[in-house]
Every structure is written in C-alpha cells, then in structure tokens.
Amino acid sequence: MDNLLSMEHLTTDEIYELIQRASDIKKGDLKPRNYEDKFVANLFFENSTRTKSSFLVAEQKLGLKLIDFETTTSSVQKGESLYDTCKTLEQVGADVLVIRHSQTTYYDELETLNIPIINGGDGSGQHPTQSLLDLMTIYEEYNDFKGLNILICGDIKNSRVARSNYQSLTALGANVMFSSPEAWKDESLRAPYVDIDTVIDQVDIVMLLRVQHERHETGEIASFESKNYHEAFGLTKERYDRLHDNAIVMHPAPVNRGVEIDDCLVEASKSRIFKQMENGMYLRMAVIDYILQTKGVQKNEITN
Ligand code: CP
C-alpha cells in the first residue's frame, strides 16, 4: 500500500490487516519500529480536532519528526498551489504527507509525487482513516461485519464519512441503510433509504452524521430547524430506548449536541463516540507504519 486515499482502493484483506495491526498495537502485541529517521508533514487546509491531534500523537509515538506546517503561516497565503506546497515538502525531505483539503479528490493532482499521501479527508469525497477507525470499533464489538444491520443517518450527500463507510461496510458484508432528509440523499450510493422509526429496534449500529453546514448552499438548512431535524432524523431518548441490548451508537464527531443526538446520549452506555476517537490514534499508527513498511523500511518486531 503506497498511499491511503480512498476506501475504494483497499481490498478487504488490507482492511482486515490494518484493523488487526491497530488492535495489536492497542493491546501491546505489536511494537512498530521507531521512525526517528523519517519526517512527516500534516497539511490541514480544513479545520480538525480529532484527525489532526490523533495523527500528531500517532506520529510522535512512532518516533517520526514533524515538519512544522500551518496553512495560515505558509506560502499558501501567497497563492502557492497545493502541488507546489507538496512538491516543496517532498524536496526538503518529507517522507510522508497527511493532507485534509476541501477539494474532493485533491490527490489527483499529486499523483506524480514520490512520497506517500494519507488522506485526512477530501471535501465530500472520502475519509479513509475515519472509516478504518469506525471499522475497528465495530469489529471490537461484533468480531465480524457480515450481516450487521447498520443505519447511517443524516447529511449523506455531503458526508465523506457516509461515502467511505458505505463502501467499506458493504464490501465487508454488512447491510447498510440510510435515513436522511430528501435534500441530503445521495442516489449514487445504492443503500436503501428507510424511516428511522421503522428500523431503530432492528439495527445493530446507528451511525449519526454531523450536519455539514459549511458544505451547504446558503439557506439550505433553513427548512431544517435544529429541533425539527433532531425530531425527524436525530437520536432522541425515545429512539435510544428502542435500540436492542447489544446495539451501539456511533458518530464521527464533532457532534452538534441536541441536533444529531440528544446531549444526554453522547456518553450513554451504548455510545462508542469517544471509543472511536481513542481507536483513531492506534489506527493511524497502524496506517503510517504499514505505508512506511511498504516503502521498504524494515519489518516490525512481534512481541508475542
Ligand atoms: N471526525 C473527524 O474527522 O473529526 P475532525 O474534523 O475533528 O478531525
């Protein structure tokens, strides 16, 4: 695996391999090598709390040296192109780039670079490390994906998480369903649209999506007052109480509390929202390690 750009590029074997490696790192059964001779740059052209901070921790646990880069103080402010920024970082010695950008498939213009790119989210396209950490969290719970009933609710059209997870979960044999306002449906994804109240007591996982205000046309949200959205498509206390005993609640976060999910449910017993964040750090360690190994660095030491 030379890059991680889209879940569509991963085989199911590679998905299982990355989940296994992340789980082994988490349990202490896999000790990745130290990459103190390698440099990484994190290029976040869109805001982030979880993805950026968990990559930073993962990179430092792996011993990587960080190249200080902020869009606000770089020559991006002078009009430098994405390609020129990335090519410059390659030339000064970066061994791997982590990039989040608002342009869907921004990575197409970077295909001549000779260093790996890990996609931290591209517009409404893909968010592969989020999908992998979600899969890791589901696997910890169910030890399988086949036959799981998974309801993904909300802003499907604008969500890179919905797209990435639809593709990976379907490939792994799960039954994915969507629930969404008409305006936020994405008919290019082949999952059935269902009424949340009809299926809520049958699903194994309810995955809520953040309402992506920043990707909406001006006024698009006007017909979806927060309270109305919560009652029509959100996880209310009533819906939570109808979930079966082993069902879990997921959300990539950040959460609009009281919109996608009732404030009091964010840390309820069935919620795995903060577990997803914890797993994200281990999963990102596994991804970086796997990619740098593919690039010819020596193999890990298995500790048991
Ligand atoms: N889930 C996620 O990508 O969160 P951030 O935008 O905070 O990185």
Automatic annotation (TrEMBL):
Family matches, as SUPFAM superfamilies: Aspartate/ornithine carbamoyltransferase
GO cellular component terms given for this protein: cytosol
UniProt keyword terms in alphabetical order: Pyrimidine biosynthesis, Transferase
Residues annotated as domain Aspartate/ornithine carbamoyltransferase Asp/Orn-binding: 146-290
Keyword check for Plastid: no
PROSITE patterns: CARBAMOYLTRANSFERASE
Aspartate/ornithine carbamoyltransferase carbamoyl-P binding domain boundaries: 3-140
Pathway the protein acts in: Pyrimidine metabolism; UMP biosynthesis via de novo pathway; (S)-dihydroorotate from bicarbonate: step 2/3
One of the record's GO molecular function terms: amino acid binding
Its EC number(s): 2.1.3.2
One Pfam family here: OTCace_N
Annotated carbamoyl phosphate binding sites: 50-51, 100, 127, 130, 253-254
One of the GO biological process terms: amino acid metabolic process
Protein family per UniProt: Belongs to the aspartate/ornithine carbamoyltransferase superfamily. ATCase family.
Functional summary from the UniProt entry: Catalyzes the condensation of carbamoyl phosphate and aspartate to form carbamoyl aspartate and inorganic phosphate, the committed step in the de novo pyrimidine nucleotide biosynthesis pathway.
Self-association state and partner proteins as the record states: Heterododecamer (2C3:3R2) of six catalytic PyrB chains organized as two trimers (C3), and six regulatory PyrI chains organized as three dimers (R2).
Name assigned to this protein: Aspartate carbamoyltransferase
Organism: Staphylococcus gallinarum
